Amino acid sequence: MESESTVTTCYRHPKVESHVRCTRCDRYICPNCMREAAVGHQCVECVKAGARSVRQARTAFGGRITAVPLVTYVLIGLNVLAYLAELIRPEIVDRFGMLGSGLVDADGGHWLWQYPYSSDLTAEGLANGEWYRLLTGAFLHMPVTEGSFGILHIVMNMACLWNLGRTVEGQLGRVRYLALYLLSALGGSVLVLLIAPDELTVGASGAIFGLGAAYYVMARRLGADMESVNRFMIGLLLWMALSAGLTSWQGHLGGLLTGAVVTLAYAYAPRDGRRALVQAGVCVALLVLLAVCAWAKVAQFTAI
């Protein structure tokens, strides 16, 4: 008597005959569902499950290792787009640049802050509740009408962002890097607000000085050769001093100090389950401190 052989089919494609089993789940799989494994083949679902169970590699600061500095690309793109918008609409600088307090008349003329002010003048800046200026000013740059430095301003900043950003993002990971950049930009704006509230300032320099501080702190934490790193920091500090007459040294210093604090938290947080919590806690605490300082300063504008 002749026995009838049983036909086995792929569990994902029931109409396809298969004689190979997944080495993990032991189900039959067809050639389209086979994935090479260390021994034999695995099905698509088992490969995905295995990938989820593998612990992703982390940097010394807790960030995920990424090959593409995506955040740096996006930040450069936003700065360039903002600059192109300035060329089309120059009034964007006055509308979104960092300004603590100022007055504007009906003809668009700008005046120094005084309180109380006459009815034919209108408040502008943070004194008028325009809190977004604390960050939007960090994505704008000197207009091209400011001479050659107007163009050099964005060119130099984007060159620095390209060189520093890729290194720092690679070590911190995207989330920590973005938090560092935005907090440094905010820290620069807040120091401008505290020291020179009536000056309109623009530029990514505060955030970039924050990246410079991060580069220095990370190098020390990783035990790198500090000779070249120290030369870099000396050059950065010299530029902050020499450019004080052309740019906002307050924004540079505020970004530098903020970036240093954030990166110290990243670098020296305990390397256990508390690391992410400590790092996030320091960032939130710093954000609250900057917000309180900004609010207190703005409140003084209308105090008599």
What does this molecule look like?
This is Rhomboid family intramembrane serine protease. It comes from Streptomyces adustus. It is a multi-pass membrane protein. Belongs to the peptidase S54 family. The chain crosses the membrane at residues 65-85, 147-165, 177-195, 201-217, 229-246, 252-269, 276-298. This protein is mainly α and 304 residues long. The protein folds into 2 domains: 1-54, no CATH class; 70-301, Rhomboid-like fold (Up-down Bundle). Helix content is 55%, strand content 6%. The protein has 10 helices and 7 strands. The strands form 3 sheets. The chain has a 3-stranded antiparallel beta sheet with strand order 6-5-7, with no helix packed on it. Strands 1-2 form a two-stranded antiparallel sheet. Helix 6 (174-195) crosses helix 7 (205-222) and helix 6 runs antiparallel to helix 9. The longest helix is centred in the last third of the chain and has 27 residues, at 275-301. The termini are far apart.
